[in-house]
Write a structure and sequence with these properties.
single chain, alpha/beta, Rossmann fold, Immunoglobulin-like, six-stranded mixed beta sheet, five-stranded parallel beta sheet, 33% helix, globular, binds 1-deoxynojirimycin
Length: 693
């Protein structure tokens, strides 16, 4: 039953406002937060520390129904997997009108690479090395999701990974801590902007804290074990960058790290995150990760797990309901202090105030805005632009690309006409059927430019059926050039989607062999969520284009690159191995005491394969060529606090304009600890005209 109407809360806030005119906003919010906290029962406080999924959709095992009753009773202060103005408004009305204190709900969702307008998967976007573009895509994702009633995205995922078997590499920015940090910053800025005064920004969430990208054997959720040095040097920097950029929330990770599950890891959450790095927002767990500490063998039962989480510094329990069921008891027993609970609730309420929800709980609920903002034409144009920038040209023998206008084309492969897969994994509210496929884009060009376009699927992504090969080979023979669009389906990457073999699935490689046997030039366009191994194709295809999952306007973006309307400029942010046996493989490796020498035995090498990858980090071709000369570094020796200034002349020596990503690496030759052979420390992306410096 509701005892205090919302009005009571609003009046207290309003009176604080007038009496505190000259105090800083943060102080004013503290007073407002305290005035609300003072009205709350312990049960209501614990309710603010609880988030449940709705029944709209699920992103994990559903173990809790009836969340509407929890909203009414004040047992749940936030919800996820709920979006659209109509749906969130209904739930917000329950919170505001039917709960005792009327505290507004916070709505979260996995808006990972776009809400309705879907951008390339984050791994693809990172290959653009274009921070402004990534900030813009996050900013558009924020505008669309905020227009659809959302306050909070569970992004960016900033987990560094050297593990292509791990399905979630598609969600991150690859293997490098420096680049990953810049991407983390850009995406936080894009999602959150400078404040929440308007209605086009959402809370960012740095995840998964910490080390989730290094599961043993690449199996999702698996144990993580690394030295603190490796953690701090390679895995921690992007989390830090995201926090410094102002991310208001952090999500714990499922894994244990050095024997302690992250969700119960006081060192990680309280010492490193809050004390060392000054994080002031709130910490939410990953989905049921409190409960999972029992399976980890770290907690005796769920109650114990809740105590470990609360005492480690967790503020909000996602989906597990552990705080709701047991925290009161743990406080009564003196195992968790109410003071700690108050601090957690303060952090959560503060953010609700910062968003302006106490002033107007329906601030993000405007149907007209939703209609105007979602799928706005400018958003789709931006999606096409960043999609072009995300493409990496891996091979281009004898200038097979760009395509010569007017030549006849056989467009084949299971993904050529596919729209649904273009949105990639973790595309939440995305609508695959609204994507423009490669075939759609080529049909439009063929209608305009009048060239002969033939299409045949050839085979499926998976399975053993080769009956479609013959027709695809037939049209291939008839055409001047064959374009084969092959790869993974979107569900082969993402959460719980690790693969032990990272080959191109099904009979697709066999299909490419049949196409190459025609003697016609074969351009392979890859769509995938992770680095794959394809040595035969790497050797025999005429050209290879890494197109990842490019989102709503993937087809036209691929057309732009294949026809040279956009000169490819992307560079890989994750190493592509030659063989799964090389994994983990990454560019910033150390020299060892017995550096690699393929010609002798007693050194760090394999007997059956070279050490080098198929395509290294930082690799990507262009339709033009660049030369580098006159590299100057200001000095020879540096101390820790010095700035290194390096200049180099880069000349476009080809016949078309192009962008080059000039990368700057350092190596500490002698140190008190060993350092990698190469570490990225800077880069610049420059556009130069043909023949120009
Ligand atoms: C589990 C995932 O690990 C996390 O990234 C996501 O935000 C939550 N589920 C909520 O869907």
């Amino acid at each position: 039953m509701r005892i205090w109407p919302l009005l009571a809360v609003v009046l207290i806030i309003a009176s604080c406002k007038t009496s505190a005119q000259s105090v800083k906003t943060s102080d004013r919010i503290s007073t407002q937060v305290d005035s609300v906290l003072a009205l709350m029962t312990l049960q209501e406080k614990i309710g603010q520390m609880t988030i449940y999924t709705t029944d709209w959709e699920s992103t994990g095992p559903t173990i809790k129904a009836g969340y509407q009753n929890d909203i009414r009773s004040g047992d749940c202060g936030s919800l996820f997997n709920s979006h659209t103005v109509a749906f969130t408004r209904k739930l917000q009305e329950i919170a505001v009108n039917e709960s005792r204190l009327g505290i507004p709900l916070l709505f979260g969702y996995d808006v990972i690479h776009g809400y309705k307008t879907i951008f390339p998967i984050p791994l693809a976007e990172s290959c653009s090395w274009d921070m402004a573009a990534m900030e813009q895509s996050a900013s558009i994702a924020a505008a669309e999701s905020a227009a659809a009633g959302l306050h909070w995205t569970f992004a960016p995922m900033v987990d560094i990974s050297r593990e292509p078997r791990w399905g979630r590499v598609m969600e991150g920015a690859g293997e490098d801590p420096y680049l990953g940090s810049l991407v983390a910053r850009a995406r936080v800025k894009g999602f959150q902007g400078n404040n929440f005064n308007g209605t086009d920004k959402v809370l960012a969430c740095i995840k998964h804290f910490a080390g989730y990208g290094a599961p043993i054997a690449g199996r999702d959720y698996n144990t993580v074990d690394m030295s603190e040095r490796t953690f701090r040097d390679f895995y921690f920097p992007p989390y830090k960058a995201g926090i410094e950029a102002g991310a208001r929330t952090v999500m714990t990770s499922f894994n244990d790290l050095d024997g302690i599950p992250s969700t119960g890891n006081k060192w990680l959450l309280s010492d490193v995150l809050r004390k060392e790095n000054g994080f002031t927002g709130f910490i939410v767990t990953d989905y049921t990760s409190i409960n999972e500490m029992v399976n980890h063998g770290f907690a005796a039962d769920e109650k114990h797990a809740g105590e470990l989480a609360a005492n480690a510094g967790v503020d909000m329990d996602m989906q597990g309901g552990v705080f709701q069921r047991y925290l009161k008891e743990s406080i009564a027993a003196g195992i968790v202090s109410e003071k700690m609970v108050d601090e957690a609730v303060r952090r959560i309420l503060r953010i609700k105030f910062e968003l302006g929800l106490f002033k107007d709980p329906f601030k993000y609920c405007n149907e007209q805005r939703e209609k105007a903002v979602v799928f706005a034409p400018a958003h789709l144009d931006a999606a096409r632009d960043i999609a072009r920038k995300s493409i990496v040209l891996l091979k281009n023998n004898n200038k097979t690309l760009p395509l010569t206008k007017g030549k006849s084309i056989a467009l084949v492969g299971p993904l050529a006409a596919d729209r649904g897969n273009l949105i990639g994994a973790w595309s939440g509210a995305g609508e695959g059927d609204k994507c423009v496929s490669v075939l759609d884009a080529f049909q439009e060009r063929a209608a305009k430019d009048g060239f002969k376009l033939m299409h045949s699927k050839g085979c499926a992504i998976e399975g053993t059926d080769t009956s479609g090969f013959a027709e695809a080979v037939r049209i291939g023979r008839e055409a001047d050039i064959i374009i084969a669009v092959i790869g993974e389906s979107k569900d082969m990457s993402g959460e719980a989607s690790s693969r032990a073999h990272i080959t191109i699935p099904g009979v697709q490689e066999q299909f490419i062999k049949a196409l190459v046997a025609t003697g016609k030039p074969v351009v392979v366009v890859l769509m995938n969520g992770r680095p794959l191994t394809f040595p035969w194709i790497a050797e025999h295809a005429s050209a290879i284009v890494e197109a990842w999952w490019l989102g709503s306007r993937g087809g036209p973006a691929i057309g732009d690159v294949l026809y040279g309307d956009y000169n490819p400029s992307g560079k890989l942010t994750m190493t592509f191995p030659r063989d799964i046996g090389q994994v983990p493989i990454y560019y910033n490796l150390k020299n060892t005491g017995r550096p690699y020498d393929p010609n002798t035995k007693w050194n760090s090498r394999y007997q059956d394969i070279v050490n080098s990858p198929q395509y290294p980090f930082g690799y990507g071709l262009s339709y033009t060529t660049f030369t580098y000369d006159s590299m100057i570094v200001t000095r020879k020796d540096y101390t820790f606090s010095d700035t290194i200034i390096a200049t180099v002349n880069v000349k476009n020596t080809g016949s078309v304009a192009g962008e080059e990503i000039v990368q700057f690496y350092v190596r500490d030759l002698v140190g008190s600890v060993t350092r990698p052979l190469k570490e990225l420390k800077g880069f610049e992306k420059n556009k130069t005209g043909a023949g120009r410096e």
